[in-house]
Specification:
By secondary structure, the chain is an alpha/beta fold. The chain folds into 2 domains: 223 residues, Rossmann fold (3-Layer(aba) Sandwich), CATH 3.40.50.150; 82 residues, no CATH class. It has 13 helices and 11 strands. Strands 7-6-5-8-9-11-10 form a 7-stranded mixed sheet. A 4-stranded antiparallel sheet has the order 1-2-3-4. A hairpin with a 2-residue loop joins strand 3 and strand 4. The radius of gyration is 20 Å and the shape is globular. It starts with a helix and ends with a strand. 39% of the residues are buried.
């Protein structure tokens, strides 16, 4: 971890940081940032991403391959990034929006030296879940990354952009920190058609995102005894019936996945239903917007082909 600290930079002035007893000190602007439980903290503990901190600390291991005994996260990571051990081994990689470490676990497995950053206190769950000398966990702002320019070989940001306040600034920051020749993978909820915003969760979110997070999560948890078995039946119907019910019912129930334990299926359904209804921000993004943000950043990139056409984009920095 100590060697990875040298890749960090002051989010205020981008200068190098010096390690103190329980803090990181900027060598230029005299800013100081605490080290709490071995995690550098560059943002206040309470912020707009509080709901994510709640969900990932409560469901810390719900989506980890190592906990479920599956390769579902690994398969998704490789499919969307198209990166393998030969590319990542020994390279400096950033997990931008790590949550409890679902995809960080995979990047480490593939041999990366990893910086995992999240805006919320989900970093505490990631700290408990992941144990590697090649890992540094950071609580910081993706729109103002505490990382030195042109220091990263690979960056991935999976399922995060649509939940952020300034996704345009985040894209620019991720590219700033990437080395020339480095690659960036973005996956996001894509605004691919006129009907996307009529999805039931977007009609319900104006109410649910204003509810106290703990109240909403407890309500979803307790009522799952009813909606979990019902949606399991409805979502298992042949298409197009299953698609229709998934569209009009704001519940995440992954009947297409195999679970060793029924409890795991229900826990993930509760987790992702809360994830749908609670965040302060949840705005589907058009690919044309991503391209516009990159153009405005003035950073030259080349777009790469992807296996996943929907909501996935890859770029190589020139």
């Amino acid at each position: 971890m100590t060697s990875l600290l040298t890749s960090l930079g002051c989010p205020t002035c981008k200068s190098t940081l010096q390690v103190g007893d329980n803090n990181l000190n900027c060598s230029a602007c005299v800013s100081s940032f605490p080290l709490i439980r071995g995690i550098p903290r560059f943002v206040p503990s309470e912020n707009y991403a509080e709901s994510f901190g709640l969900q990932w600390n409560r469901f810390a291991r719900t989506q980890l391959d190592s906990a479920l005994g599956t390769r579902r996260s690994e398969n998704r990571f490789v499919r969307e990034t198209q990166w393998h051990t030969a590319q990542l081994k020994g390279k400096l990689v950033l997990d931008a929006g790590c949550g409890s470490g679902r995809f960080s676990e995979i990047a480490l497995k593939l041999g990366a030296s990893l910086i995992a950053i999240d805006y919320s206190n989900a970093v505490d769950a990631a700290y408990e879940n992941l144990n590697s000398e090649n890992l540094l966990i950071v609580q910081g702002d993706l729109a103002n990354l505490p990382i030195q320019s042109q220091s990263l070989d690979f960056v991935f940001c999976i399922g995060v952009l649509q939940h952020t306040k300034n996704p345009d600034r985040i894209v620019a920051e991720l590219l700033r920190c990437l080395k020339p020749g480095g690659e960036l993978t973005l996956t996001f909820y894509e605004n691919s058609s006129w009907h996307v915003k009529f999805y039931s969760k977007y009609l319900l979110r104006p109410l649910t995102k204003r509810l106290p997070n703990k109240l909403l999560l407890n309500f979803i948890d307790r009522t799952s005894v009813l909606w979990f078995p019902v949606t399991k039946i409805l979502f298992s119907l042949p298409r197009p019936f299953s698609q229709f019910f998934r569209f009009i019912i704001p519940i995440a129930n992954y009947v297409e996945f195999l679970y060793t334990k029924k409890h795991d299926a229900r826990a993930e359904a509760i987790l992702d239903t809360f994830d749908m209804l609670s965040p302060s921000f949840d705005r589907p993004i058009k690919k044309s917007e991503i391209l516009k943000w990159i153009s405005l950043s003035k950073i030259e990139v080349r777009q790469l082909e992807t296996e996943s056409s929907l909501g996935t984009m890859k770029f190589k920095k020139l």
